[in-house]
User: Which sequence fits this backbone?
């Protein structure tokens, strides 16, 4: 099976997993739990749609079932947020709910729009360095969008564990992938100039 099979199935059932947490701990009247369900559940289903209509080629690699289970185990750490919210009946303040929803909204735009741009440009104009649109000033805009999405998720439980999980993913998976991408793009003659004029992941900062 390709890696995307394990990633897509995991993200696709996140809505059900969060729903199970809410039902088990009877959190139907908890606005934080329900908003989390709406945000993370929607993101999982959007990811499946994205994978169907404009997939990322790096997740097409074949993997053994054992590596697939490893992917599942790793991604399951993200379920710490809804578990904490439901089991502890966390009631996030209104201002934090607003911030998380805004982060999620901007994150979905940057993540999905940049992935769509990359997919279209590579499909219809392959063999060139993408330096326009959302990629003009940030080389990894898709990861920036994903960062906003998961930060929004991780803030809602008001607990250190989801933030630690997110940091682990950034250090172990995201940063190595972005460095690997930079090394791959270095084959293009205009990459050095593009690298100087763009940020690694965070607009205007880094």
Assistant:
């Amino acid at each position: 099976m390709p890696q995307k099979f394990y990633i897509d199935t995991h993200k696709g059932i996140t809505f059900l997993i969060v729903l199970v947490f809410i039902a088990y701990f009877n959190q139907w009247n908890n606005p934080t739990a329900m908003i989390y369900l709406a945000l993370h559940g929607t993101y999982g289903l959007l990811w499946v749609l994205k994978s169907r209509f404009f997939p990322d080629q790096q997740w097409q690699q074949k993997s053994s079932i054992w590596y697939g289970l490893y992917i599942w185990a790793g991604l399951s750490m993200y379920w710490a947020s809804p578990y904490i919210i439901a089991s502890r009946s966390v009631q996030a303040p209104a201002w934090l709910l607003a911030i998380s929803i805004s982060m999620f909204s901007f994150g979905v735009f940057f993540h999905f729009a940049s992935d769509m741009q990359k997919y279209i440009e590579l499909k219809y104009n392959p063999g060139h360095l993408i330096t326009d649109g959302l990629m003009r000033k940030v080389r990894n805009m898709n990861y920036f969008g994903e960062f906003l999405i998961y930060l929004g998720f991780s803030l809602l439980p008001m607990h250190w564990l989801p933030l630690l999980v997110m940091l682990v993913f950034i250090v172990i998976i995201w940063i190595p992938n972005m460095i690997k991408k930079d090394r791959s793009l270095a084959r293009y003659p205009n990459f050095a100039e593009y690298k100087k004029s763009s940020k690694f992941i965070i607009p205007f900062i880094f």
About this structure: The chain is about 70% helix and 0% strand.
